């Protein structure tokens, strides 16, 4: 989605946005914080960081559902973690069961950042979705879930944390700035540290619901075919249809997405 019905790709750096929030509060800062591209209205975070080796946390064998994606550039398999983000996984699997992803494309690709899809057809027409799923980023992390590291898959959303529908992205870098940030107890919060800085006596309302602090919900990872994802991330990109940038050329189509292993 595009925030405020406009296309806003240029976002200020995270520290600048947080400084404004902590000093002046939440009102007036929504469009200053980084958000992911969703169908029809979204602001997206700027890519930063360098690509490092995958470091997703291992999960118990033979206990998690798996989904195979067949694309025009090859196949890859996602393993999902319902024990960490149950509502997010259930939402994603329902879209798979409904064949929502069949015929959609990866419409946003940024090398050294992420590849994103699940929302547009080959004509870059937005697909209809079900109501959004509740955000589980901080809860998943508290249960020992993975952060936004190479190979993990997370839900895309707008500045509203509880706005994720069908779109997902695969991290192709360790994107720590997308991780949920725990908020200490108290109101005001006696001490809050973020990106190397400490803030004292911050009203809780200035922190809760901040899109940067709630982060993005990681609910699975690529367990096969990361080489395919890496080929997708390396494609040249540009404007196409209603999207002004980051559309891979040629388009990469998801031909099918099917559950190949269900939760016992």
Describe this structure as you would to a colleague.
16% of the residues lie in helices and 28% in strands. By secondary structure, it is an alpha+beta fold. The N terminus is likely disordered. The radius of gyration is 18 Å and the shape is globular. Strands 3-4-6-5-9-2-1-12 form an eight-stranded antiparallel sheet. It has a two-stranded antiparallel sheet with strand order 7-8. The protein is built from five helices and twelve strands. The chain has one domain: Cyclophilin-like (Cyclophilin, Beta Barrel). A hairpin with a 2-residue loop joins strand 10 and strand 11.
Structural class: alpha+beta
List the strand order in the largest sheet.
3-4-6-5-9-2-1-12
In the CATH hierarchy, the architecture is Beta Barrel
How many β-strand runs?
Answer: 12
Return the CATH class.
Answer: Mainly Beta
Tally of contiguous helical segments: 5
Rounded mean pLDDT is 81
Q: What would you call the shape?
A: globular
Counted up, domains total 1
Secondary structure topology:
Elements: H1 14-24, E1 66-71, E2 74-80, H2 86-97, E3 104-110, E4 114-121, H3 137-142, E5 152-155, E6 168-171, E7 189-194, E8 197-202, H4 211-214, E9 218-224, H5 226-233, E10 237-240, E11 243-248, E12 254-261
Antiparallel strand pairs: 1-2, 1-12, 2-9, 3-4, 4-6, 5-6, 5-9, 7-8, 10-11
